[in-house]
Hints:
The structure holds three protein chains of three kinds. Chain A is 32% helix and 35% strand. Chain A has two helices and ten strands; from the N terminus they run αββββββββββα. In chain A, strands 2, 4, 5, 6, 8, 9 and 10 form a seven-stranded mixed sheet that branches. Chain A has a three-stranded antiparallel sheet with strand order 1-3-7, with no helix packed on it. By secondary structure, chain C is of the alpha/beta class. In chain C, α2 crosses α3 (111-121). The interface between A and B is medium-sized, with 27 and 26 residues.
Amino acid sequence: MKDKLLKTKYFFTISAAVISFAVFAPNISSAQTAAGDPAMPPIILEISSSRTLSGTAGDFVEVHGDIKNAASKPITDVTAYLSLVDTKTHMPVDLEDWSVEKGLFVGTIGGAATLPLDWKIHFVTSGDYALSILAVVKDYDKPIGSAITYFHVAPKQNLNPGAVLPVALGEPIFLAMFFLAFKYRRDKKSA
Amino acid sequence: MHKLIWKKDILAEIYTWKSALWLLLTALIYSVTCYLLLTNKELSLLDQTEMLWLLGKIIIGASLLVAIIDASSLITTEFEQETIEDLFLSPLPVRDFILGKFLTVMSVWALMYAVAVPYVLVSSAGSNLSAVFLAYAALYGTLLIAGFTVLVFGLSFLYRSFKNTLTTSLVLFLAAGIPALFAATLKTGIVASVITAINPLDAAFASLDNVLVDYHASLSANWPYLLSILGFSAAAGVFLFVSVRIFEKRGVIKE
Amino acid sequence: MQSNEIIKMNGVNKSYGGRQAVRDLNLSVAKGEFFGFLGPNGAGKTTTIRLMTGILKPDTGEIEISGKPVSEKSHRSDKIGVLSESKGLYEWMTGREFLRFFVSLYGVKNLNGRIDELLAAVGLADRADSPVLSYSRGMKQRLKLARAIANDPEILFLDEPTLGLDPQGQEDIQRLLKKMNDKGMTIFYSSHLLHEVSRLCNRMAVIADGALVADGTLEDLRRQTKKEDLRDIFLALTK
Lengths: 191, 255, 239
């Protein structure tokens, strides 16, 4: 009986340890990684608007993210950047026209605190893209990045925006007909 | 009597298809430009003010080019067709001759401006930019075309040849146009300031940028640019005056 | 200047293009005269007409038209009409439009009436509304004549008016000119065709190499050259 109880106690102890490890390992590992690599800041970045990011060229969308200080002490001079790559051409995208603020100066994040990150971006060209957020901290040599979010921008199809077609087609046709009528009238008069 | 010359030349413009073809061609250019601006995947995402500024440059540039070609032919063809002698054997004063021809070119500009208006309205739909844009386009277009027309007339009296007048006029147009095409960011420093001060086309484009992009729409904010264009027109007027004096001294039939 | 002299040139000299076009020219034409001005090509006939109408200024000498010195404004006087040798037509216009333009320049009253009168006088009434581009050479010349007399001038200067015309065209022009002269118009007729000038003109002058070589009636020229044949007279005077 005593042996059975002991075995059961050992079983639950070991199971709890395994489950705890499985749940907490990533954090522990990243904390250990961060803690293990003194050059990287103890920051966790997430993009929270990954499901709502896709749209059509010309759309203005908001990218929401969170930046979390995984350490207990505050971190100062934090700046977060957007990074965008065209997955078809495998080329980075110049964010000049896409976003007014490519870099956000976050400043200080208190110990274990989380702050929101928001960017307004303009879908300039259609295509498939990969987006991530990078953070750099003054006292740390290396940056740290979020997981990558993939999204699609559909092409803008508009054959007659702002009713331009009636003017673009109509005016040259009208002018041509006007002058032809003028000439016809004159030729008839002279005949 | 200038009205007789004006009427004769306007009818010539229409019946000989001169202006008719130019109006048609510029309408086609505006059509393509507007359509591209509004439908092209990247161009249509331009800020509306930048779109109008681009359209404004095209309207003024195309109209100026047409005016220069027209003005180059108006007086020189009278020499080449040998109608000048009969004109000056009549009681027609030189002053009325020039004024009538000048009004012809300005009438062609007025028609080209009227053709451009629907395109501007379509491109600026939804904004409150059309009125200020149309006002400044009318002002600068009129002043530029008046100045260049007077300059070309001066060349016509000196050369008495359409080919020579047109070649020289186009070179002058290019000399004015090329610096004006440079982006504002490239034009810094004292050399750029001097170019804007003496180049009427550059001054007009810079002012349109000031009005549309930077929202400085008052005349007082654009006075330096207006001054540059007025200065050019005055200089062109002096050149025409001197050319006409030389023409009168040499005679209708070149001695 | 004698009271009936309507054109007078005294000691007129003109050079341009590096050559002496007119040298020491003395000439007078009486009012109402049909005066012929003869000479070979390049003799100075056109230059003389341009000097008289004020298109060109003489280097030296005096020119008077209707008793007044010729100045740069005189060629815009409504007292003279000129049919020059230049092409001078707006071919996109119709004949009527062309005359309307020039008649308007002279400020003629009763515009439409005057245009119809001119078209009828030169025989272009039935082609008045056709473009000038479609006119024959003779018709174009007649249209230019109509323009030259649009202001009903006192003096009509004609520079080779029948050049390039067929015999019928020449006859039509000459008949018309005779009619106008009979009504009192002074006609200064410049040509290199002696037979034409001798038939039409009361008096003639002959110019060669810029200088006057003869002045008088046909009989005077015959006496001067001792020749009978018109061609011989012309060659003798102009060689």
